[in-house]
Amino acid sequence: MMDRSNWLILGLAVLVAAIGGYTQHRNQQAAPVNQAVLGQPMPTLSLPGLDGKTHPLTDYHGHRLLLNFWASWCGPCLEEMPALNRAQKKFGENGVIVVGIAMDEPDRVRSFMAAHPVSYPILLGQLASPSTSLQLGDAHEMLPYSVLIDADGRILATHAGAMSTPQLEQWLASTPDQP
User: Fold this and answer.
1) How far is 85 from 81, CA to CA, in rounded Å?
2) Which of 32, 69, 104, 136 could form a disulfide with 145 if both were Cys (CB 3.0 to 4.6 A apart)?
3) Which CATH homologous superfamily contains domain 35-173?
4) Range with the lowest mean pLDDT among 7-21, 39-53, 85-99?
């Protein structure tokens, strides 16, 4: 049977665990994004692909573009990838292009993609400062991070954290003057 001091210690341990869990949950919520990039032209970027070639993002000019920043070690990123894959298949014939930008080591990305292929292009982001995601408004460099770009190359919207299927569909099905 537990005496009074053991109950007190147990109660304090439960309280500390609850506070720790709450704090961790709050820290995982979507962080504010640098809204200054909205309406601005997308920076001129050329990124290496898994094929070893450099791919200028201007190659996608004339198409609505969803850039999704992710990493192989990021759980929410990996949970979001099937929805991105479905979105590319659903909206790709309408000129919308999803591009995954891996903020990770190239060998890890290649290994991951070999086991989990997707129907959209994967490019390798610049990890050194300023990182590719930071250049596109990800002030806290939080992953996953998505950027919606219009056919003229202007940034329409940004989103920190994983996107739901309805959010993705709203972004990709919207008319050109709405995010």
Assistant:
1) 6
2) 69
3) Glutaredoxin (3.40.30.10)
4) 7-21
**Domain extent listing, the chain:** 1-30, 35-173
Query: CA–CA separation, 130 vs 126, rounded Å?
Result: 8
- Closest by CA position to 81, among listed 119, 109, 50: 119
- Which amino acid, 50? L
Q: Do 125 and 132 contact (CB within 8 A), yes or no?
A: yes
Interval 81-118: pLDDT, tens:
999 999 999 988 878 889 999 999 999 999 999 999 99
Which residues, other chains included, contact 103 with Cβ-Cβ below 8 Å and sequence gap of 6+? 69, 70, 71, 125, 127, 131, 132, 133, 141, 143
Whole-model pTM above 0.85? no
